[in-house]
Amino acid sequence: MSRTSATARRSICARFLQCKGHDMPNDFQLIDPALCRLWPGNPRAARTLTDDACADLIDSLRTQGRQELPAIVRPLPQDDTHSYEIICGARRHHAVMHLRAAGMDIGFLVELRALSDEEAFRVADVENRTRADISDYDRAKSYAAALDTYYDGVQAHMAARMQVSTAWLSRHLQLARLPQEIVAAFADPGDIRERHARQIGHLLADPETAPDVLAAAAAITADGTALPAPQVVSRLRAAVCTAQRLPHGALQFRRSMHDAPITMQRRGKEVTLRFSPTLGEKALRGAFERFIAHTYG
Predict the structure, then answer these.
(1) 89 has a pLDDT exceeding 90
(2) 3-class secondary-structure state, position 219
(3) Separation of alpha carbons 233 and 196, rounded Å
């Protein structure tokens, strides 16, 4: 695309900004969706922008023949490839692009605004906060990025700008900070809810229980079976049911410090061994070898 045509598009953007004599025009415009790119701070993950994920919207636009709810975009005066950046409306953009590729004569309806990055974050959050098609996890990751990028890591300042409580924001940031080993245990990151992070967060924060939870997560991932999110959380919590307060005379054996243990309790002439059902075969064999070496070595 030539620099001349890019300059012409920038001139059009400037006229849009000046048309009402202020910095935040609310004009709706029909534009070519190919001139738009997605704002990097958008909370919607790329995996949700597929034909299948947007099928309901594609069918709706095809039936109506037009897009009724405008996307929110801002001008890109310094970009030679795109003229606009999509702040809200990524699914609408994908649907319109799909229909145009299929031969439908449809434009991309937008509301052009002049927004700073921090303003863009808050506008996107207001529109997307209650949308069911954006997962808690994706939303939380966008919050964690914004905290450092726009608010110097100060949660109270960010919460005030978002008009939410610091407790509410902290719960979502806890979700965003889940270790990758935990995230990988779920069938899809989009399955992870804010409440799930609360249910296991205290276990991960405790250095005595964290290895058991991480080992259970690794075992779930290694097994390769896609489990419902509540079942994943139950297994992670069950990994610490072999309580860290051991009965008198009990001993624990692990293959390594990263694995959950087996617990040996001797009562008279009997020995009881307990271990989590999520413990993987290799970790279990390694723990048994240490138990045997201790007992018969």
Answers:
(1) yes
(2) helix
(3) 7
As assigned by CATH, the class of the 3-134 domain is: alpha beta
Strands (DSSP E) contained in the chain are: 28-31, 36-38, 71-75, 84-88, 108-112, 251-253, 262-267, 270-275
In the block, residue with structure tokens 């924060």: 205
Q: Radius of gyration (Cα) for the chain, nearest Å? A: 26
Two tokens at 258? 């990263």
If phi > 0 it is left, if psi is from -120 to 50 it is alpha, else beta; for residue 152 that is left
Q: How far apart are the C-alpha atoms of 8 and 13, rounded to whole Å?
A: 9
Give the CA count within 13 Å in the CB-facing half-sphere of 169: 22
Question: What is the phi/psi pair of residue 78, to 5°?
Answer: -105, 15
Given this model, what pLDDT does residue 20 score?
34
CB of 73 closer than 8 Å to CB of 85: yes
Cβ atoms within 10 Å, residue 89: 27
Q: With contact defined as beta carbons under 8 Å apart, do 95 and 58 qualify?
A: yes
Query: Does residue 255 contact residue 292 with C-beta atoms inside 8 Å?
Result: no
Quote the pTM value. 0.69
Across the strands, what pairs with 31? Answer: 108
Residue ranges per domain, the chain?
A: 3-134, 147-177, 180-296
